[in-house]
């Protein structure tokens, strides 16, 4: 056995861990708080309860991240992963919120049931690994990066093109007047330029925290311009306890439970792609047993989410991009990020300070990070044999086309049954299903089994080096 630890197990000094951890938190924060905001408003909760949902979500993010990164017997991928609420659950939960007999307690019952389902289903989903040779994994990771780019571009433009607000007591979608403002776009370009200069000229540790420094410099610039506001920071409490079942005992309804279990299956397929991407970025081969532990941690995180008054959890792909940008492979960096998320959940004033960072600042950083995810997929595809096996071209081309449907035409599937929307609205899932099916159609299962057997052999050889 080699005495040299793999890069994912490297432990840095505490100050460096904190800096790298807060960088991961800044990258995921906007996405982490978005879902509780959406669901809390859909449930027409009072502002103090919406604020509690955000604190509970941050706290559960930290717990789920620690489970995934530190790992326990049979649970946790032990890679640099940050966990957050999946957006795949938003549509179904909005439907549940609108149903008077379901409400918030029915949502939590469905989330808890989905977590248990995920724990049970993890070993079966991980057996799909032979279906993911490089032509499939490269395509999926490329689609993940391209899909995420929409998030970065909207951040750079100042948020979403439309915003929800109440008019005469009725909620509706209205154009966002700040969207596409030249000031915001200029700020995003400034942050992007700062990050690129730090990567190019910084070297060493400065280069590894280029995203954090870029966001900090961008935030300082916006504060100096009077565009960063601290009223919410002043109003936020210093301490908030997150207790289980804050809103009452969960309720279990067959329909919502079944729907959320389908969402959990979607999440697990997406996570499988994330784990394979991280394995490639960090240089650590991912075997079936590793996938089982990682997917089981998704289930445990979702179960904890339902208990601690929040929602289903998954691996955040934007943080996968950050690992690619910084080249820092250590899982203890995201352990530090998880501890910071716990603290943010317990100290709302700290959370409000991070929330005050304007979205265009995050947009400049997002373009770098999410592009790195897509570039990782392209790099994997560069090793695929397209010359002697032209069928691989069709696998990639058609799968990317399907993966782009929800991105370029969100209303494409509007006339399909509502029960199918959680499946059809995920471009990542569409790309995964189509690429697996086309690879089986053109290449059969044998090629995939050979590729994964070679991977297993390489992992075994490294273990005995």
From TrEMBL:
Q: Which InterPro entries match?
A: NCS2, UacT-like, Xan_ur_permease
One Pfam family recorded for the sequence: Xan_ur_permease
What keywords are annotated for this sequence in UniProt?
Cell membrane, Membrane, Transmembrane, Transmembrane helix, Transport
What kind of membrane protein is this, topologically?
Multi-pass membrane protein
**Keyword check for Disulfide bond:** no
Family to which the UniProt record says this protein belongs: Belongs to the nucleobase:cation symporter-2 (NCS2) (TC 2.A.40) family.
Q: What is this protein called?
A: Purine permease
Originating organism: Hansschlegelia quercus
